[in-house]
Amino acid sequence: xxxxxxxxxxxxxTTKVGDGPYPTEQINEVGEFLRKEGHEFGVxxxxxxxxxxxxxxxxxxxxxxxGYTAVAMTKIDxxxxxxxxxxxxxxxxxxxxxxxxxxxxxxxxxxxxxxITLPGWxxxxxxxxxFEDLPQNCRHYIQIVEAMLGLPIRWWGGAxxxxxxxxx
Length: 168
What we know:
Layout: E1 7-11, E2 14-16, H1 29-37, E3 50-52, E4 54-55, H2 56-66, E5 70-74, E6 84-93, E7 96-97, H3 105-108, E8 111-119, H4 136-149, E9 153-158, E10 162-165
Parallel strand pairs: 1-5, 4-6, 5-9
Antiparallel strand pairs: 2-3, 6-7, 6-8, 9-10
């Protein structure tokens, strides 16, 4: 293998532009909150992006396809005001956990998402630069995503903060 490291970038939540399946999309006050707080509008068109909870199955698929060796998590501060945050951990079809990522739009039909719910941190992290200084619930969110993704999250950052290393 000639390429040793492949780094991916992901938001702490999921966004999508255009049509198509989006199992973790929140067409409710949560989606509106993420859109507003995260400034999730097209740069050129100004169209609102579709917003939802973090989609672990989609990110696992993206990781497999791209061969990521580590990732950066951005916009974690968008959750600062939330009482709770969710992670879509698996897709269910007819009540049964899917063992693979859907390979066609048709396979997304009837999918439900299994979520885990974590407590929010209800405090601003905008001035925090070290992982160990983040609120415990924020650190826990990052660690849970990292463990479930099976890939190190080497950097984290907020919408306005820039990036910060987890390794010090």
